[in-house]
Amino acid sequence: MPASYAYLGPEGTFTEVALRTLPEAATRELIPYVSVQSALDAVRGGEAEAAFVPIENSVEGGITTTLDELVAGAPLMIYREVLLSITFALLVRPGTTLSDIKTVSAHPAAQPQVRNWLKRNLPDAHWESAASNADAARLVQEGQYDAAFAGEFAAARYGLTALETGIHDAENAQTRFVLVGRPARPAAPTGADKTSVVLWQRDDHPGGLRDLLGEFATRGINLMLLQSRPTGAGIGNYCFCIDAEGHISDRRVAEALMGLKRICLQARFLGSYPRADVGQEGVRPLMKGTSDEEFTSAADWVARCQDGRF
Amino acid sequence: MPASYAYLGPEGTFTEVALRTLPEAATRELIPYVSVQSALDAVRGGEAEAAFVPIENSVEGGITTTLDELVAGAPLMIYREVLLSITFALLVRPGTTLSDIKTVSAHPAAQPQVRNWLKRNLPDAHWESAASNADAARLVQEGQYDAAFAGEFAAARYGLTALETGIHDAENAQTRFVLVGRPARPAAPTGADKTSVVLWQRDDHPGGLRDLLGEFATRGINLMLLQSRPTGAGIGNYCFCIDAEGHISDRRVAEALMGLKRICLQARFLGSYPRADVGQEGVRPLMKGTSDEEFTSAADWVARCQDGRF
Amino acid sequence: MPASYAYLGPEGTFTEVALRTLPEAATRELIPYVSVQSALDAVRGGEAEAAFVPIENSVEGGITTTLDELVAGAPLMIYREVLLSITFALLVRPGTTLSDIKTVSAHPAAQPQVRNWLKRNLPDAHWESAASNADAARLVQEGQYDAAFAGEFAAARYGLTALETGIHDAENAQTRFVLVGRPARPAAPTGADKTSVVLWQRDDHPGGLRDLLGEFATRGINLMLLQSRPTGAGIGNYCFCIDAEGHISDRRVAEALMGLKRICLQARFLGSYPRADVGQEGVRPLMKGTSDEEFTSAADWVARCQDGRF
Amino acid sequence: MPASYAYLGPEGTFTEVALRTLPEAATRELIPYVSVQSALDAVRGGEAEAAFVPIENSVEGGITTTLDELVAGAPLMIYREVLLSITFALLVRPGTTLSDIKTVSAHPAAQPQVRNWLKRNLPDAHWESAASNADAARLVQEGQYDAAFAGEFAAARYGLTALETGIHDAENAQTRFVLVGRPARPAAPTGADKTSVVLWQRDDHPGGLRDLLGEFATRGINLMLLQSRPTGAGIGNYCFCIDAEGHISDRRVAEALMGLKRICLQARFLGSYPRADVGQEGVRPLMKGTSDEEFTSAADWVARCQDGRF
Questions:
Q1: Which of A266, A294, D121, D215 could bridge A200 with an S-S bond, Cβ 3.0-4.6 Å?
Q2: What's this model's pTM, rounded to 2 decimal places?
Q3: Which chain D residue is nearest to residue C304, measuring alpha carbons?
Q4: Which of B136, C211, B245 is CA-nearest to residue D290?
Q5: What is the mean pLDDT of chain B?
């Protein structure tokens, strides 16, 4: 298998920065791809060992291109996630001052994050969308625009200067990235894991989705994401991308997935992997009756009842 | 093990009639006991192979003596059940006519079943409670009372005549009896079985009992009996005797019992055994997603996900 | 309306003692009746203002005669409840010693409470059932039996002496009594009330009872009693007597009852009345979102939405 | 109030076509706006009576710009919805043949719908994104590109010819549009309505979302859309845009909204309006116990219980 990771390029974007926070990235060749789809296809086709792509951000929500690929494309699995706080720097050619700036550029996804800053500081600047923030920086370098919003790390690469850093309209602006590979055995549980799954309901009736979520709730499993995606079968036909706390090797998660498999039309497992969002306070304590020990002990009791030994 | 069945005596009661409907009763010595407790203790002490006792009737509800023994005494298991329609005959000494009857006798449990008949036909007769209906018949034979309400089958034994038969205030009056033995492997499933269990809640909070019943409901398991019994820990402290459709070797039932074991303070398995109430229409069709095949297939899918093969 | 209370007699029983703890009993004539049914019929027929009868005890569970009358007889309502700790005294004629006692008597319901004491102290005494504990005391007075188990208060009435007091096998042995009248407006809420209701399910299907209990659970209403009683339509046909925390004038209780009325085949309201079991710790705090204020505020919001004002 | 409707422009797009299917559009001035936000701001600012914008399509799912405006902007309400089947025509200048086409253009949202058609028919054509399909058509008219994917209706406006019509990769490709106005009393129920609401959970715990959906499920209300949107408070913080069957003046819907208001941190009503998706088979039959009559009758029963009259 090639020792390379595909990622959503170009170079010098937040995606690359996030990818480089993974220790294993240091030992792989990192290859930028022009789209999420092409990066994932590189994995499917065996050109890359894994692909690193954004999947969710705190301003726009789920990244639909990534979700739709995981939902409907040839099966892949998530092995790692990275959370990156997103703040922008205003990059200019050396010598440019704020009052010199007539045009600013960035990827359209940056716009909601810098809109208020622009209103306050550069109300008259003209916005020009670019294919990526890195591309915007390049165009500033080439003199086409006066300033670019990009990660501060991009300044060095394009010979630019950061006039201002830490620009972000929303507090806690973060993007979540995932490392995606071909299906294989998930990494062992770490004690702070999440499990991703896609579910298609069997039919549409009052309480259908409630019952589906009940498979998690009755086993004390908290949900971290519920994102509906159209199935393509017409308006109102959705499947659900769900991230749940816990690892498929946890008994409560395994039994919940079994329950979902039974009641759903279809279920697709997207992986169990370490959570990137666990801080000092650690993970939520388990609900009474949902630990592996309690599951094992209950299974043992039922086995003894089946044998008439108790 | 002694080839004898204990039963709630005396001879010549509905209990004996019900017991004799079991084919296996023909090959055992049938020994009457004076109380449910003594019959069950005969099993616990090894004097009898099994005991046959009433557990529920359609007029009085659960037979609390039997339930409390199964709930709190040394563990026993139910292996068979019998349903018997209860109608009474009015037994008199030969030659007695309706207008001769001044006193009638029966076990107090018979009273709700014959009360309306008495009002219409013998409004002035004096009621005398007896220890059993058979005992009432004996006392009529001995001349102490004029008439007894008992099963028609008791007439011959006591040299009496049935002045009237088929007496029953409530339509569908039935009593359910169970054959109880020491814990052993339950009989194999027949496709129309029930499972009995006693459950103690962990604590008392809004939704506690609802969640407990949810372990059955989410797996499509219908309940046939829910009888609360005091735990002895004071007013308002109850455990629940539950009969559910299905056999502990059914995957849905086994998983429900596991769930209950995990969330309950305590659970006691009382057996899985063939249902006596299944008529021509057969058993309720399984809810989608709850068959053994669907459980097995879902477990297999989860195992494959755990291995990354799908 | 006659200023009298009917109660389950005879005089000198626990029922009378419990009744006399009610302040309003001091201003009524208290009339003993021979049965629960006759006491309740006295209310129905207008001979008594209310009837005072046992409804639940911590050893035997629900008193089925009382429950069945409330469930199936002409409608009545509960207005008060009383909890009485039940301990027995061993009453003898003055001069009798323990070694003189060959026969003991009491109502059969006393037996489970004194059985262990008898085994330890009078293993050879012969048990004779009496119609009531007071009757047993009378029969001791008359010399028919040597000793009676009854409330200590009965000693004086029958000229007997208590050889021993405080006899009770089960700790926390209590009986709950209710004061029952013809339907009328319930007493105002006290902040620590309970509501009694009888529910008949529309049909029998997996989850039916779970959904019924869900009407309480989703509104944060704790259950204090769930007692199934046969409907008379054959084995397995039950209605449910439920005591729930709260008063029908509490918004959460009123809405839960509405929900039950809609989903049940039939519902019978048995009253809202002050709880007798609330100690120093007071009542359970309300679940978030279930106070009257929150109900009113939510109703107000919906009304404003319906008007397009928000 | 000005007799004008704002809509997402430019002219000659699917949005305008959908808007013109509303009878009331014939009597209003229809004014195109450059963005969803500006169209909605025109309503908020009083320049337009209502705005017509896309909210959901069967390929991309919820239109996040529209949802986020309804979720977080100054309150607006939905009054009508329109469903439009989306198929594309390939528009060229008269005389152009398929083999002449080197460049094709359309709005990026058209791409997933025409991708397969392009692979089969114009594998070598170069894709150029345009600001709208109408804009692409204009650029073809001006000679900048060879062909545009747009609605067939755009041909006449731009002097173009449709080389092919009915192009759509996904069967049942539809877009849902809504007519949005300032808050006012919703239109009267038609018998086939939907209600839109946004819900913010109080906190994040196992079962939280399940319980929220339970408010609909227990009242037999089917969900038509569940779309999570980030709250801006960081990754994993979502609110839920929900479309439910029924009208806020239906008792079951009003009570469900009340329940949600009580258990949610926040709730925003987005309107009750006629469903556009009801075909010949009509609406789903109501679940037993959820009709207005049953609600009214249950409320009446509770009121009578509160008065002691029953």
A1: A266
A2: 0.92
A3: D185
A4: C211
A5: 93
